[in-house]
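**Protein of interest**
===
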Amino acid sequence: MFKKNLILKIVLSVIALGAVVLCVVLLHNSFKPDYDGIITVEVIDLDGSVINKKEIEFKENDQLMNLIEDNFNNVTYQNGMIMSVEDYNTPSDWSTFLSIYVNDEMSPVGLADIVFTDGTKISLIITEYISDWS
C-alpha cells in the first residue's frame, strides 16, 4: 500500500512538473513579437520638414520596397527607383528627386539593395537637382 502511494505521488509530481514547464513555455512564446525588428522610414520635404515618419515592423525576408509600399501612400517605382511617395511625385524634368539616406548617410545603392536591421533609419529626402555646380 505504501509503495502504491509513493508511486502515485511520484507520477502525479512528474505530471504536475510537466504541466508547469508547458505553461512556462507557452507563456514565453506568447510574449515573443511577431517580427524580427523595427525600422524607421521618413519622408523629408525640401525645407527639411518631415512629411511622414513611420516605425515599421519587419520579418527577416521582407523587402524594403514592399515595406514602404505597404506603409505609405502613393508609392510608385520605375526601373527600381522610387518616383513618388505620399504627396510627392518626381517631376518629368527631374528638378527634384528622392535621395535615399540610411542612418543619416547617403545610400550608395538603391532601395532594392539596402540591407537593413533592427533600428535602421531610412530617409527619403526630396532633393533639388542642381545643374550648375559653379
